[in-house]
Amino acid sequence: MTRRLLLAALLVVVCTACGGAPSTPTGAPSKAVTLGFSAWPGWFPWQVAQEKGLFAKNGVEVELKYFDSYTDSLTALATGNIDANSQTLNDTLASISGGAKQTVVLVNDNSTGNDQIIARSGISSVAGLKGKTVAAEQGTVDHYLLLLALRKAGLTQADITFKPLPTDAAAAAFKAGQVDAVGAFAPFTTTALELPGSAAVATSKDFPGAIPDHLVVSRTLASSRPEVVQGLVKTWFDTLAWIGANKAEARTIMAKRAGVSEQAYAEYDAGTTIFSLADNREAFSSGSLERQAKEIAAFLTESGLADAAPPLDGLLDPRFVQGVSS
């Protein structure tokens, strides 16, 4: 399972789709919409929504599609094979760079510790990574976190040996002692930390707001079927309320979907800050999301993860969180 985007591969797919490759047009005359999600604690509430019938209560027929590969979910949205997806702001910007037409309609969460740079025993800081081998999924948010951490320590990627691997393989390679450090996200941080003496030397908590996660929809869906998007957004907040009132049952559902024990799942809570309706409205209205998008876009370009800064027009659509009754 991977949570983050291999940019080069996605650009090829998006450009192919733009050139006329067969795909199912988003917003085609079908009552049901397909919502994608993958392995990340801030997205498992969608499983609760499905099992508790909360989509139907809000008048939307949803095919909830779980992707073992996060990258596959990004490709599916970019090519019109699903209508909506759970993905990061970084990866949304990368998709837009490739020509995709997408818009952010909801902030699920901010990563506040569940993305980590984990090093073996004997390496106690990011500075200690100089000359060492570090694995992460290339062009992904954990690659982005690694670059942020290196820059803060006065280093660049040229100061390390970077080993590009899918996140699950990277965590496994680190656990096996094949690399000195790894960039990974929960639940794969659990795997990496099974190496005796290993510890996180940098996390997303060190870079507040750098890794926001969202519900992202095609712009065609947002313009042609806004009532459906409104229903998805309303369902999210109803789901959070249900989880708050039924914590034990909700944790059982989400841990099962994650493939981890309930105890392990509980440990992810502090590393993912779920955004309330008030948090969402503030994020959209204050300009903080726009500022973060500009910072990420600039960093992607400066670090060579994108050839050009993506256009931000139409990226953020606040009307759906504004349309939810308090």
CATH domain topology of the largest domain: D-Maltodextrin-Binding Protein, domain 2
What low-confidence regions span 5 or more consecutive residues with pLDDT below 50? 1-29
Q: Into how many domains do the coordinates divide?
A: 2
Sheet/helix structural class: alpha/beta
Shape label: globular
Estimate the helix proportion, in percent.
40-55%
**Rounded Rg:** 19 Å
- For the termini, the CA-CA separation is 36 Å
Main pleated-sheet profile:
6 strands, mixed
Look at the structure and name the CATH superfamily of the largest domain.
Periplasmic binding protein-like II
What is the CATH C level class of the largest domain, in words? Alpha Beta
Strand element count:
11
Supply the key terms.
disordered N terminus; 5-stranded mixed beta sheet; 326 residues; D-Maltodextrin-Binding Protein, domain 2; 11 strands
Give an overview of the whole structure:
- The protein has 326 residues and is α/β, with parallel strands linked by helices.
- The protein is built from 15 helices and 11 strands.
- The strands form 2 sheets. A 6-stranded mixed sheet has the order 2-1-3-10-4-11, with helices on both faces.
- Helix 6 (141-152) links the parallel strand 6 (133-136) and strand 7.
- Helix 2 crosses helix 10 (226-245), helix 2 packs across helix 11 (247-258) and helix 5 (89-97) packs across helix 14.
- The longest helix is centred in the last third of the chain and has 20 residues, at 226-245.
